[in-house]
Structures are given as C-alpha cells and as structure tokens.
Design brief:
The complex is a heterodimer of chains A (319) and B (366). Chain A has 319 residues and is mainly α. Chain A contains 13 helices and 4 strands.
C-alpha cells in the first residue's frame, strides 16, 4: 500500500507543473498565438523566483516565502512573455521564430545573470527546501485519501488544481473566455463585433507567461535542490500535453496526469518489484512515457483540431 | 509573384524580393549591438576587447577559419533538415533525435565495418542517412495517416531517440571505462579532401564540402524539380494541391523522410570527422538539432541562406569561445544569436513596409 501512496505522490510532482504550463499554453493558443516559448518562459520564471528564494531565505522561510516566490515567478514569466506577444501580435512575426528565439535566450540569459550577480560566480542557484508539507493538518489523517493527496506534498499542488478549475470556468463560462476563443477561431468576426483582438491576444499570451513562470518554479522546487538553467524539456513536454489534451482544460489535465504517471513508472521502476523482475534495460523504462503518448495519440488524433487561427498574425484587412 | 512585371510597361526595382536578406542582415546588426551593450553592462573596461573577439576571433589564423567550417558542418545539415520540412509547412523540431540516430548509425558502421576498406566512410555516411530518415519516418506516417500533430510526435521521438541511442551504443559499440562509443576505424573517417592543406592544424575535413554539395542539391530539388514544386504546393495549401492531383500524404512522408536523412547525415558528418568525437551515454538531447532550427530560421528556410546562416553561427561561436580570454562567459553568444533570431522574425513587417514603398512609387509614376 505504501508503494501506491508513494507512486501517487510522485505522479503529482510530475503532473502539476506540466498541467499548469500546458494550461498557460492553452490560453495563448486559444487566443490565436502559438507559444512554443513555454520552455524559455518556465526557465525565466524559475530563475527569478529561485534567485528570490536564494536571497530571502535567511529572513523568511516556509509557506510565506513560497507564496512570495510564486508571485515573482508569475510576474517574471508574464514580463518575459511580453517579448513574444510584441513580436507575434504587433510585429506580426512568425510565432515559431519568436518562440524559438525566446527558448534560446532564456537559458543563456539565466546562466549569464547567475554568474554575474552571484558573488561565487557559479551558474547554479542553490536553495533550502523549507516548503514540503509532511502532512496537511486534519485532512492528512483521513485514511487512504489523506495518505494519497495530503501527505508529503506542496501547496503548489493545490494551487495547480485550483488553476485547473478556474481555467475551465474562465474559458467556457465567462465573457472573456468567449472572446478569447473567438479570437483564436475567427479574429475578423470577433473584431467585427467590437472585440479588440490585440488586447485579447495580449491577455492570452500574458496568462501563458504567468502560468509558465509558475510552472517553472513548481517544477524546480518539487524535483530539485538547485536551479541550473534547465527545466529538463518540460516546456516542450507541456506543449505536447496541450496538443494531446486537445486545447481543452480537463483533457489537458488528463493528458498531464497520464504523462506524469508514465513518467513516475519510468523513474521508480526499480522500487516496483514486478517491473524490476522483467529485467529490462533502464533506458527502456525511460522511453515508456514517450512511446505511450505516441500510441495514445494514434488513437485519439483523428478528430484533433487546433484553434483555427492559431499561428496566424491578425490582419485587419484580410477576409 | 512578387517579381512579376507590372502591366503598365515599366519595371520598378522590386525591394520585396530582397526583404529576406535585408532583414536577416539588419537582425544581425541589431543582435551584435545588443551583445555589445550586454558586454558594456557586464564589464565596461573589457567590453571592446570581448566584442573584438566575437567579430574577429575566427579570423586570426587559417586554423580558426577551418574550425568555423568544422563547427558549421553539422548545424548546416540540421538547418537544411528543418528548412526542408518548413517548405512543406512542417515544423521539424525533431532534428535532434534524427541527428543522434544518424550519428549512431554512422558509428556502428564506422566501428564494425572495417571489412569495407576504403568504402567504409561512404557506407557509414549512408547508414547515418538511413537511420535519420527512418527516425523521421515514424512522425511522418503518424502525421500523414493518423493526423498526429508533428510537433508533439517530434518531441516524443527526440526523447525516444536519445534513449534508444543510449541502448544501441551500449549494446553495440560501448567503451565501458569512458561511458561512450568506441572510436571509429581510420577508414571510416571522412577524407580531408584537401581541407587539411588549406586550414592546417584545424579540425576541418571533407564533411564541409559534402554539406555544401548537399545544400546545392536541396536547392535544385526544391526549386528546379516537379517534386520540389509539389512539396511547396502542399505546404501552401493542402486542399488546393490535392485538387490539383498531388498526393499530399505521400508528400508529407517523403518530405519528412528527406528532412530526417539530412539531419542524420549531419550526425554522421560530425562523428566521422576524425576530430575525436564520441557518443556519450547520457540523458542529454543533441543540441545540434535545436541549433538547426535557429540556422534554418536565420537562413529564411532557403537552402543557400541556411548554408550561410550555419557559417555565421559557427563563426560567432568560435569567436565567442575566445571571449573567455577577456573574462566573459560564452553564453553571451547564445544571447546574441537569440536576439538576432528574434529580430529576424520581424521580416514580415519589413516586407510590407517595402511593398508599400514600392506601390507608392508605382503610383507616382502613373
């Protein structure tokens, strides 16, 4: 039983950052801006917030510090994403090009700045993890469910779930969500009824930046003890999760959960007796999440449809 | 279309045609200026020295120039791969996986194919081509027949390729002590083709010449053949091209097959260069595949443009490695490259400005 609890807790660590970042990407793509810069945005959010933790951890600790870091991560991700928004909305740039540029810029900028501002001159930024919650009061004592979801956890896990619910409501139950989707499907139509396509698209990209930055922080604090200018390709995986989840919030969550679970299996196969008994190469297990995703996609992609206007700059003169 | 003579009977200089190169060069200038500003912020007293290394570090000796060609070779190939797929409107973010699979294919033949004698390097290079092509075939088939978004399957095959390469190296050509692949046989190294005479002491070899020839071949294939036209037609408008009798599915698969072959050859050219390169068994995606995206974008997805873009990136990378002498981290080169690509993305705006300029002039004369 304890193995199962452990697997579920681990799955959450992999799933939540993927889901948060993919949901961010969803807002951007639903507004009509393809955002392959998610990897770079995660990196920048992670860099700024971990550096903040590194500087403040002598005076603050625990959940208050984490909450402040979350705000920093979201703000820095949003600011960084403005570069993408400006290029792809105002300058009508090719969104793949601008996204690629940001993905290249983020790690080099993070290494450069870390080496410049840290007296030690190293590129890694260390931090003390004072954020892990061994057991949530009251809820952690519930049998089974308490073990699964309320022990050995982080507040970011619950924040992630909250973001999922809010995202779904915003996208499908609010005026803003309707306008956002309209701009991603047929911006000329949205414009003709008085919606400012530029503003909506800016909002979409900025939301993706904030959630992307947050995802970077979540990924680093739950899986690592220092920041080393890398989020292990999670931004690209989030992109895959977004497409896998067909640009719909709950499907995105499901896709993230699927991938997170597969990733957990591949990372912890040595602790699962019957998997270890199969005696396969460790690299084979590491491939499982990616192969499984491909197989699932083969069966689920026939009807898959991206937002119609995603990737196309808005041209008021076009019909 | 852009260069069509207008019907009033006189010609206007068509600046829109050169919008691409102009914006690339403009982006390079802006990128270098921003690089200089960063250097000035980081360390004002050494900034000019560091900038000098970026601009001229690669021109110090024939050895440095030769090394530029050596570094340019694999990224030209991955750049061509990405550019080729772009022509069919497919985003080959999977060049990394195709590159490493190509490298593995080349190294396996390079280690175990000694019986091939002086043909070994050709066979090894062909193996890299086949491995790369087959690795892109999976996303190609998934895209054409199952409508799987190619970006996601490329990302997945990058990781699968990385782990599969680890398995293959460990099973076939593993040197346990160093945790990397065995050295390839001397006959598997690409001949120098005179490059060692031109650029003594450098790592330059015939691989660069092969890459240039392939770039020209790709240019001919894309621009001078029916097949190339069909590929581009599919990229512009899938439905219209189907109406015109072009088999879109076949073209998607073929386009990715060729793109994969190009990236695979890139892996072959690097690991058969005789420069002491080995495939390490580690969980790191091959960077050359992602650099290829930058190269293709900077080269405006044109084969010859890609060739020059690869040379340029290699040029500032070699120069940037000298920058450490002035106490700067080489990451500044990546910042500059990123800035250049970011501004290169503004080409569309530039084109429309030039077009407006052109029409205004036309209006004046009539």
């Amino acid at each position: 039983m304890s193995t199962i609890y452990f697997l579920i807790q681990q799955t959450m660590f992999f799933t939540i950052p993927l889901m948060v970042v993919a949901l961010g990407g969803m807002f951007s793509e639903r507004s009509g801006v393809v955002n392959i810069a998610l990897e770079g945005i995660m990196l920048m959010g992670g860099f700024c917030s971990i550096f903040f933790i590194n500087q403040m951890q002598d005076t603050l600790s625990g959940q208050l510090l984490l909450i402040l870091a979350i705000l920093i991560a979201m703000a820095s991700g949003a600011v960084f994403s403005l570069l993408h928004a400006y290029a792809s909305i105002n300058m009508k740039a090719d969104q793949t090009i601008s996204g690629t540029a940001l993905n290249l810029l983020a790690p080099s900028l993070a290494i450069f700045m870390a080496r410049m501002i840290q007296p030690s001159g190293v590129q890694q930024i260390a931090f003390n993890n004072t954020f892990r919650i061994a057991k949530v009061p009251v809820l952690g004592d519930i049998p089974v469910i308490g073990n699964m979801f309320f022990q050995n956890t982080y507040i970011t896990t619950y924040l992630g779930v909250l973001i999922l619910i809010v995202s779904a409501i915003v996208l499908f139950k609010t005026k803003f969500g309707l306008r956002l989707r309209a701009c991603g499907e047929h911006p000329q139509a949205a414009d003709s009824v008085g919606v400012s396509v530029y503003k909506i698209r800016y909002s979409g990209v900025i939301i993706s930046g904030a959630l992307g930055g947050l995802g970077g922080l979540i990924f680093i604090i739950t899986t690592s003890t220092n920041y080393n200018a890398s989020v292990a390709g999670y931004g690209f995986l989030a992109l895959a999760v977004l497409i896998f989840g067909q640009w719909k919030p709950y499907k995105v969550a499901g896709a993230a959960l699927f991938f997170g679970f597969m990733k957990t299996i591949s990372a912890t196969y040595s602790t699962i007796p019957w998997l270890q008994g199969l005696n396969l190469s460790g690299y084979f297990y590491k491939m499982i999440p990616y192969i499984a995703t491909l197989i699932v996609l083969v069966f689920s992609s026939k009807k898959s449809q991206a937002p119609r206007a995603a990737g196309t700059p808005y041209d008021q003169g076009a019909r | 279309m852009m260069s069509k003579k207008d019907n009033k009977g006189f010609r206007i200089p068509d600046l829109t045609r050169v919008a691409g190169p102009i914006s690339s060069i403009g982006a390079i200038v802006v990128g270098l200026i921003i690089g200089l500003i960063i250097l000035l912020i980081a360390n004002p007293s050494k900034a000019l020295e560091g900038f000098g290394w970026i601009i001229g570090g690669s021109l110090q000796s024939p050895k440095d120039i030769g090394n530029v060609l050596y570094y340019a070779t694999p990224i030209i190939m991955t750049g061509l791969s990405v550019a080729f797929a772009f022509r069919t409107s497919l985003f080959n973010i999977g060049a990394s996986g195709q590159f490493i699979m190509g490298a593995v294919g080349a190294v396996i033949v390079g280690v175990h194919g000694k019986f091939l004698g002086s043909f070994q390097w050709v066979a090894a290079l062909l193996a890299s081509m086949v491995f790369g092509a087959l690795w892109a075939l999976i996303p190609g088939i998934l895209k054409a027949f199952y409508n799987v978004n190619e970006v996601i399957s490329f990302i997945m095959t990058n990781y699968i390729g990385m782990y599969l390469a680890n398995i293959l190296v460990r099973e076939t050509v593993y040197h346990k002590l160093t945790n990397r692949s065995l050295p390839v046989a001397a006959t598997a190294n690409i001949p120098k083709m005179g490059m060692d005479k031109l650029f003594p002491e450098s790592m330059a070899n015939g691989g660069f010449i092969i890459a240039v020839l392939i770039a020209i071949l790709v240019y001919i294939l894309l621009n001078k053949t029916t097949f190339g036209f069909e590929l581009k037609a599919c990229g512009f408008n899938k439905d219209a091209s189907r109406y015109a009798g072009i088999n879109a599915k076949k073209n998607i698969v073929l386009s990715l097959l060729i793109a994969g072959a190009l990236a695979g050859i890139g892996g072959g050219l690097l690991y058969l260069a005789g420069s002491g390169k080995y495939i390490y068994v580690e969980d790191v995606l091959a960077a050359e595949g992602f650099t290829g995206i930058s190269v293709a974008l900077l080269g405006m997805s044109h084969p010859i443009g890609t060739l020059f873009a690869g040379l340029f990136i290699a040029y500032i990378t070699v120069g940037g490695s000298y920058m450490q002498l002035a106490g700067f981290v080489p990451e500044i080169i990546d910042i500059i490259t990123a800035t250049i690509i970011y501004f290169a993305a503004f080409a569309l705006i530039l084109r429309s400005v030039l077009q407006r300029f052109r029409f205004r002039k036309a209006g004046d004369k009539s």
